[in-house]
Amino acid sequence: MGRFARSGAMVGALVLTASLALTGCNDDQKKPAFVSGGQPASVSAAEGDSSGEASPQPVAAALKVSPADGADGRPVSTEISAKIPGGGKVSKVVLTATNGATVEGRLRRDGSSWVPSTPLKYATRYTATVSGTGTDGQTHEGTSTFTTMAKPKAMIGSGLYMFDGKTYGVGMPVVAEFSPGIPKKDRAAVQKRMFVRTDPPQPGAWHWLYNGTQAYYRAPEYWKPGTTISVRLALAGIPLSNGRYGNVDRTATAKIGRAFEMKVDNASKKMSVYQNGALIRTVPVSLGKKDTPSSSGTMVVMEKKESTVFDTRDEPDPDNQYVTKIDFAQRITWGGEYIHAAPWSEGVQGRVNVSHGCVNVSMANGKWLFDRTLVGDPITVRGTTRKLVPGNGWTAWSMSWSEFVAGSALPVPEGGAGPAF
C-alpha cells in the first residue's frame, strides 16, 4: 500500500479553469426603481369619456428590487431578486457596471433570483433594471444601484476535481473540496451556489462529508455513457459566518465515456471486468493480507501512474515498511490502496491474499487494465474485513441513494434534483 499526500491533487484542482454558462461569482445587484407599465394615465373625452374629464387609469406599481437602491458593501456573489406587488414573475434583469459594461446572467428555474454568470468586481458600482409581469397582467419595472464590497482578506480555499475537456468514467462524482471545511450551518448557502447540469438530463444530489472538507455530487445511478457534465462552483465572494469568503469560481465541462466497471470478490480472489454491461475479462487478484486488509466498498479510479514508487518507511510496523517501484498503478483511496501490477505475487494471485491492502494483478493484466481504464471508472471490492471509510477516496458510490441524499444541506426532491437553470 503506497502512501501519498493529497496536496498534489489539491493543487491541480485549485488551478482549474473552464468556461460555463453560469460561471463566476455573482454579486448582489438590484435596486428598486420606478416601474412604468399598464395603460396611459388618462384618455380624452373625444376618445370616449362622456364626462369630458380625464379618467385616471391604473399605473403598475414599481418592483421592489434587492439589493436595495443605494446599498453599499455588497458581496460579489450577490444575486438579483425582485418582488412584484400582489405577486407575479420576474422575466428580465439587465445589470450594468459604471463603465456601461453589461453583466451576463440567468434566472434560476424557480424564479427566485437572477445569478450573474461571472463574479462581480470588487468595489464597483452596478445598476440593475428588473422587469416582470404581475398577476394583474401588467408589466412592472424597477431599478437599483448598489456598490460591491472591497476584496476581503479572509478567504476559503476551494478545489474542483474535474478538469475542462477531459473524459471520465461513469462513476466519476463531481468533487468539491474546501480548506478549511465548511461548518454545517453554512453548507446550505454554499450548496445553493454549486451548479451542475447534465446532457442528457439526469437528476442528482450533493452529499457533504462530516467535516465539511468535501462535497460529492452524483446521480441515483452511474452516469449514462456519453453524458456531458457542466459544473460551476460559484463561490467567489460567498460570505460565511466565520468571517471568511469564497475565494474564486471554479468551472469545468467534461464528458463521460463508455461504461467500464471492475468487481472484485475476495472469496474467489477474482476481478470481473465489464464494458457496456458485458463481461470482457476475469483477472486473478491478491488482496490485502490479514493485518493489512483491502477496503470493501465501491471506489473509483482517482489517478493513474504508469510507473511510481511506494515508500512506506513511515509505517509504525517494521514489517510494513518498504520502498518499491510499482508499474501500472491506479489509486482508489487516499489511504494508499491501488490496483497495480505485482509480479512478485503472480504465483498466488487468485488463491492467497499477500498485499498491503492493494489489488495485486499480474504484469500483463496490470497493463491491460491500465490501457483501458479512465479516472472515474468504478471498482467494487466485496468480502474483506475492512469497510471503506467515507472520504477515504471519492466514496460517493459506497452508500445507497437514500444514505447519500441524507448528506445534502438542502432538501432533495424524490428521485433527485434537477439543474438550477
TrEMBL record:
- Give the matching CDD domains: LDT_IgD_like_2, YkuD_like
Which InterPro entries does this entry report, sorted A to Z? Big_10, LD-transpeptidase, LD_TPept_cat_dom, Transpep_catalytic_dom
**Low complexity: compositionally biased ranges:** 41-55
Query: Organism's domain of life?
Result: Bacteria
Q: Where is each L,D-TPase catalytic domain found?
A: 260-382
Segments carrying the region annotation (Disordered) are 33-58
Any single GO molecular-function term of the entry would be: acyltransferase activity
- Keywords from the named record: Acyltransferase, Cell shape, Cell wall biogenesis/degradation, Lipoprotein, Peptidoglycan synthesis, Signal, Transferase
Q: In which pathway does it act?
A: Cell wall biogenesis; peptidoglycan biosynthesis
UniProt KW Acetylation keyword: no
A Pfam family that this protein carries is YkuD
**A biological-process GO annotation:** peptidoglycan-protein cross-linking
Kindly give the PROSITE patterns that the UniProt entry links to this protein: LD_TPASE, PROKAR_LIPOPROTEIN
Catalytic residues at 340 (proton donor/acceptor), 358 (nucleophile)
Signal peptide location in the record?
A: 1-23
Q: Which GO terms describe its cellular component?
A: extracellular region
SUPFAM superfamilies given in the database record: L,D-transpeptidase catalytic domain-like
This protein is called: Lipoprotein-anchoring transpeptidase ErfK/SrfK
Please tell me the species this chain comes from. Answer: Micromonospora kangleipakensis
